[in-house]
Amino acid sequence: MTTSRLNFPQGLLAGQVAIITGAAQGIGAETARVFSREGCKVAVADLDQAKASAVVEAIKAEGGDAIAVAGDVTKNDYIDLLVQKTAEFGNGQIHIIVNNAGYAWDDPIEKIQDKQWDTIISLHNTAPFKLVRAAAPYFMVEDGKDRCIINISSTSGVYGNAGQASYALAKAGVIGLTKTIALEWGPRFGVRANTVAFGPIKTRLTTAPEGEFVVRPDGTKHAVGFHHGYDEPEKWIGDIPLRRIGTPQDAAKAILATASPLFSYVTGQTIMVSGGRGGM
Ligand SMILES: NC(=O)c1ccc[n+]([C@@H]2O[C@H](COP(=O)([O-])OP(=O)(O)OC[C@H]3O[C@@H](n4cnc5c(N)ncnc54)[C@H](O)[C@@H]3O)[C@@H](O)[C@H]2O)c1
After folding, report:
1. Among 78, 103, 167, 230, which one carries the catalytic annotation?
2. Which CATH number fits the domain that encloses residue 258?
3. 101 Cα–ligand 1 center, Å
4. Which residue lies with its CA nearest to atom 40 of ligand 1?
5. Hey, which end of the chain has fewer CB within 10 Å, N or C?
6. Binning pLDDT at 50, 70 and 90, where does residue 71 land?
7. How confident is the model at residue 219 (pLDDT cuts 50, 70, 90)?
8. How far is CA 198 from the centre of its chain?
9. CA-CA distance, 48 to 186, in Å (whole number)?
10. What pLDDT does residue 228 have?
């Protein structure tokens, strides 16, 4: 059998339905937009209702279809609601989950408080697990359709990073979750699961100006922008073979590639999207 011409006139993800967490801005929002342009219906899941709704409106303005489901992925009720609303929106189908919501709450090991630790593990590990578990009925299906889970990691999870013990552990943890999903749901249901691990990407997470916060579920604020911006890129790009900071577009294209039929025989892998940083 030969490979047919690799064009997908209806889009790489035509007819599919995706949940993308943390999709109100940054990497998740760009992923929602590129998925939509490739024919996918998208549930934009995020803490930030106003920004999630703006992403949905922009997608609809381009002729795509999306819904905003606002809430906190660390809350059980929200996970159930997200799966239920997406399944309704998708006429009973969900094909893709991108576990992307997250931020870092950094300190050196000796200063990390239990609350800091628990928050980061709950956000990056427990929440993705619970979302995948809640969506199991939509993935454990033998109908021959493409389905995949993508968990977002970081070079910190693969190589470690001084000052990021909780984040590094959590981002390493999703790699084990990914491989286990691939092993459990691949043989019978054909579900692919891959991790996409980013190096530095220019988003609010890394570049927020002084004074920008994530509001935690308990109402307290957490400062973001831990690198005080990449506005002096020469300080950061010395160990990056491509000698530039990545963009949300670079990140979203890699997630799209991983979700697409071009990666139909790729599962259980950690795709490094880091400009080559950290080793090749
Ligand atoms: N930007 C980078 O350099 C970089 C590098 C490696 C990995 N990552 C990872 O990529 C993912 C996206 O990061 P980004 O840079 O786009 O950040 P971002 O801050 O621009 O966007 C993250 C989104 O996640 C949402 N979010 C946070 N906590 C949430 C919760 N409890 N429930 C629902 N939504 C929540 C935020 O509201 C925000 O909209 C994260 O998992 C991050 O750890 C980013």
Report:
1. 167
2. 3.40.50.720
3. 5
4. 102
5. N
6. very high
7. low
8. 10
9. 34
10. 57
Ligand 1 center–CA 138 separation, angstroms: 25
Angle at 40 between CA 54 and CA 267, to 5 degrees: 120
At 21 the pLDDT is: 99
Residue 181 C-alpha to ligand 1 middle, in angstroms? 22
Q: Is 70 in the pocket of ligand 1 (CB under 6 A)?
A: no
Q: Is 264 within a domain? A: yes
* pTM score of the predicted model: 0.94
β-strand 221-223 against 213-215: which pairing, if any? antiparallel
pLDDT single digits (tens) 72-109: 999 999 999 999 999 999 999 999 999 999 999 999 99
The reply to whether 10 falls in a domain is: no
Instruction: Count how many domains the chain has.
Output: 1
Ligand 1 atom closest to 72 (CA): 32
Cα-Cα-Cα-Cα torsion 31, 164, 74, 51, nearest 10 degrees, comes to -40
User: Has residue 175 been placed in a domain?
Assistant: yes
Residue 39 Cα to ligand 1 midpoint, Å, equals 24
* Residue 236, pLDDT score: 86
Average pLDDT score over residue span 10-14? 96
Domain extent for 62: 17-273
Q: Is 100 close to ligand 1, i.e. is its CB under 6 Å away?
A: yes
Residue entry with tokens 């790009």: 237
Would you give the DSSP letter of residue 60? H
Q: Indicate whether 4 belongs to any domain.
A: no
Catalytic status, residue 265 = no
Q: pLDDT, tens digit, for every residue of 172-213?
A: 999 999 999 999 999 999 999 999 999 999 998 877 655 666
